[in-house]
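note to self: the first set is below, dont mix up w the second
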Amino acid sequence: MGTERAYAKLTLSLRVLGVRADGYHLIDAEMVSIDLADELEFSDGDAFAVEGLAVPGGGDNLVLRALRAVGRTASVRLHKRIPAGAGLGGGSADAAAVLRWAGRGDDVALAATLGADVPFCLRGGRARVAGIGELITPLPCRAGSAYTLLTPPLHVSTAAVYRAWDELGGPTGEANDLEPAALAVVPALARSRDALGEATGEAPRLAGSGSTWFVPGAFPAVAGATVVRTVCPGQAASPTSMTG
């Protein structure tokens, strides 16, 4: 029945502008797709299997929720390469892949019901993301720009980070307003930040709510790091921009 690639997203900047009456946070962010990707294989049947990295959530993970949302059944084999709880939108990318497979690749409203990052992952490329994640404004996509990621073995709960942001009174970060809150929730994140900064001479930024830290450029010698490049799935790319 086909395969779909689910590209991770990297949040280059993130401002939290406030909180709606229903408790959802309003953001203004810039996101790009990167070539770290899961792959989903669809076939006849009704089963779900995972190869590679573990997927949290048991029977209520985003792949199965997306299938229910489109009213479809299928046997899905998920080749998992995007780590969970890393701020890279792995579950959201998988849900978006299900929507594309089901012919709902333009249904941003449906995507938003599955999670704040799903609308961007559905569109991909490079975009300004606003509202609670459902307002997507495409930006010129520069394929091939390099970033070095360092993801510690720490799972960071997005919900816990937003709660901490509220409790701390809405702190701001240099490029990511969630960074102070994430460090308050998981102080051990600072060790990976400092290691990446010392190894590269760059100021690391936190990806979304964490736990991944990143710097621009390719630094393949950094222990435990992954070098990724931007991709433009479904979006016209400007001339390749290679960094590092």
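second set (the one i keep forgetting abt)
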Amino acid sequence: MPRIARGLSDGYIYHVLNRGNGRQEVFHKDGDYHSFVCLLEQALESFNVRILAYCAMPNHFHFLLQPEKGEDLSTFMQWLMTSHVRRYHQHYGTSGHVWQGRYKSFIVQDDDHLLTVVRYIEGNPVRANLVETAKSWKWSSHLERVGRHHTRIISNLPIATPIDWTAYVDQSMTTGEVERLRRSVNRHTPFGLDSWASDVCEKLGLESTLHKRGRPKKEK
């Protein structure tokens, strides 16, 4: 099956994620998470990419990134993934694939849809029942956003957030919200208003992402 085009272009915000190879656990202890977050900080010094949100989970991660130029996203992710895999193998004395392959990404509209994605990212540990509140998970952008962490990784969002951000993140998302996000993850479909997504797809040649992958069923 041919790869889906990424639609990299200037001026967009991207939700990026990857999972451990075979969904295996990648982060085994606090030191693994800490090393990964340190790599994020290092990457900011070398690449023109703003980090708007992030979350590292036992077997996957989520980022919300805003590259200055579209191609900056690829160079940022290539450096980060290569650096992390090298450190992982050196530390654990292993070899082979750590991540499942190419990272997934899709463009996010910078309106309320953006808040939905940030909420989805920072609320991941709560939905996975790892913690009861996003404030209890050390390896995401949530603590920095609410002023409870010393790191300076994330940039300000281009849209105002609710006053009680933690309560907003901890609140359960609707089935419809989660299903739409997962559709964007699986198809690389831009996440936003239907009219906006159609315009972006037409501009960047991503029309195929609007439709379910695979061959159409034969009529009986």
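remember for set 2: Residues 13-204 form a domain with the Alpha-Beta Plaits fold (CATH 3.30.70.1290).
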